Amino acid sequence: MRPEASSRRQPTFAELFTPKLVTVLREGYRFPDFKADAVAGITVAMVALPLSMAIAKASGTTPDRGLFTAIVGGFLISLLGGSRFQIGGPAGAFIVVVAASIEQRGFDGFLLSAIMAGVLLAAMGLLRLGTYIKYIPHPVTVGFTSGIAVIIFASQITDLLGLTLPGREPAALVPKLEAIWGSLATVTPAAVLVAGFSVVLILGLRRTRPHWPGLLIAIALASLLSVLLARLGYPVATIGSKFGGIPSTLPAPSLPALSADSIAAAFPDAVTFALLGGIESLLSAVVADGMSGRRHRSNCELVAQGVANIASAIFGGICATGTIARTATNVRAGARGPVSGMLHAVFLLVLMLVAAPLASYVPLAALAAVLAVVSWNMAEKAEFAAILRNSRGDALVLLSTFLLTIFRDLSEGIAVGVVLGAIMFMHRMAEIVEIDTGARLIESDEADAAGARGRYRAETEEDFLVYRLSGPFFFGAAAEVAAVLDRIGQTPKVFVLDLTRVPFADATAGKSLKSFAEKAVRGGSRVYAVGASPAVRRALIENGARPPLIDYAATLEDAREQSLTALAA
Predict the structure, then answer these.
(1) Whether 157 contacts 360, CB under 8 Å
(2) Which of 80, 161, 437, 527 has minimal CB crowding within 10 Å?
(3) Taking a C-beta distance cutoff of 8 angstroms, is the pair 319, 273 a contact?
(4) pLDDT tens across 501-512, in order?
(5) In angstroms, what CA-CA distances link 31 with 34, 339, 340?
(6) Alpha-carbon distance 456 to 470, whole Å?
(7) Helix 214-231 / helix 31-58 crossing angle, nearest 10 deg
(8) CB–CB of 400/416 below 8 Å?
(9) CB neighbourhood size of 548 (10 A)
(10) Domains of the chain
């Protein structure tokens, strides 16, 4: 074992799963810190209030479900999470999958999927899988985020234009656009006016008064505008007219009906929710780390996300996750720790208790305007264009994820994108594997001709032949390495593979090396491997490339001495 590996201490369970709240309190939490967190908490609550209602409505349920999620889920994510500044609640990324789940299996079926997703998230954290979510390729995250943005915007067209659809609005994009196109004759000019006013106000405040709660101000003024229009004889659909308002208390906790069939039916959606929740929350935590200079505990964060989703569903909420925009607002507002996120949930609860009747006047067109702006901001336009320009391989991954997310399914888009990304990575890793001359093996797809042998020059001293490998010796490159070795025209008494520059090897590499060694031994050669690290040597030996078929030496000189001794015997 290498010295650096043996000296690296593994973190304990407590270090991995202690919530950041405990860490902050241990560091010394005083009244000035609480005051800063209170200011940040109320600032975030002003942003979360309209967003939570808008996201819930766009997800195919009532606006109050979004508030339940932000209050219950948001509180628990901050209480138990592994990030100092994470703000939890309903997220725009979930709109597509939640709406589809509710449409297909009803709200009770969705709640069961959300609870199961919470269990999966907690299990992922306890199994320490949070570390691996960061390996999802960047083009995949850009692709599904941009795809979700397109679908969110499309889902708001009905309310932006005040359309009246003949039936329930489809969740799939193409049927949705067909239904909208067929209902354009029902456009409500007053709704268009309210939506346009809201968008202009949100963008104007963001430019001129970026520290003001622009979303809440836009919702409040749009509500006054809709009341005025209604008195003039131009009514606009509101939360009250469509949903009957929102309750002023949290509902009593309850569980959906459980059965073997319902659990089996809910499982695919649960996997999608868990995967998306894990990605979104850890991306948000990384953003907070970048803004604050702190480091989050990814596995602890996943456990908190799991508990929050279970509790949110039990209280009738939708999926909860870390939210990038609200988390960034929290950091910019001067938060000192998780208390700000907990207070944000408390402030939302107080607002719901006190101001619930006023929510009835909020126009649906204003909520749609909020999400239209959110979807525009979600679409990573600059990143999307840069990936398309810079790399054909990454562009393929990006477009596959983007188009599948839009026209098929989010989970399918992510799965295909990750697989394509992995294939592209293996291709690039195979490209850097070289033998002696630096020739890229990925480009050596040529006929087995005598002229091909000269391309791979070796260091020869009578009966001592050395080939030097450089790069990862894994299944993506093993076939090419084996082909090169098989084309060697000479059969020296001693054949040496210098593996000093091979950082790792896998089972396929071991099998390929074993096959070559067997052929060389039959031809009368002895085979040595020199300079292999303990990990590479172990991988090769475990897969058949072991003594006496292949002898291992620390250096080239050691191999020379061992071979001379063996030949003289």
Answers:
(1) no
(2) 437
(3) yes
(4) 888 888 888 888
(5) 5, 12, 13
(6) 13
(7) 50
(8) yes
(9) 8
(10) 13-390 (no CATH), 434-568 (3.30.750.24)
Confidence of residue 2 (pLDDT cuts 50, 70, 90): very low
**In the predicted model, is pLDDT for residue 96 greater than 90?**
no
pLDDT value of residue 441: 44
Mean pLDDT value across residues 374-399: 89
3-state secondary structure of 339: helix
- Of 526, 546, 529, 550, nearest in space to 538 by CA: 546
Closest CA to 468 of 489, 437, 442: 437
- 283-334: pLDDT as tens digits: 889 888 888 888 899 999 999 999 999 999 999 999 999 998 899 889 988 9
Local structure of residue 211 (DSSP, 8 states) = T
Three-state secondary-structure class, residue 212 = coil
State residue 194 phi and psi, 5-degree precision: -65, -45
Tell me which amino acid residue 534 is.
Answer: P
Query: What tokens were used for 148?
Result: 């979700």
CA 270 to each of CA 113, 245, 319, 485: distance values in angstroms, whole numbers, following the listed order = 5, 30, 10, 49
Give CA–CA dist 427/423, Å, rounded: 6
Q: State how far the Cα of 479 lies from the Cα of 516, in Å rounded to an integer.
A: 11
Amino acid at 219: I
According to the model, what pLDDT value does residue 460 have?
Answer: 45
Joined together, the tokens standing for residue 222 give 């749009």
- What is the pairing mode between strands 434-435 and 464-470? antiparallel
Q: Kindly give the interhelix angle for 298-314 and 95-126, rounded to the nearest 10 degrees.
A: 130
**What are the helix (H) ranges across 293-338?**
298-314, 324-332
Which amino acid does the sequence have at 10? Q
CB 55 within 8 A of CB 40: no
Burial class (CB in 10 A: 0-12, 13-18, 19+), 220: middle
Residue-wise pLDDT for 321-332, tens only, equals 999 889 988 998
Look-up of token digits 């939210």: 323
Query: Which DSSP string do the residues of 356-421 spell out, in sequence order?
Result: GGGGGG-BHHHHHHHHHHHHHHHS-HHHHHHHHHH-HHHHHHHHHHHHHHHHT-HHHHHHHHHHHH
3-state helix, strand, coil in the chain (%, to 5): 70, 5, 25
Give CA–CA dist 511/514, Å, rounded. 5
pLDDT tens sequence across 463-515: 778 888 888 887 767 666 767 666 665 667 888 888 988 888 888 888 888 88
Crossing angle of the two packed helices 392-407 and 138-161, in degrees rounded to 10: 40
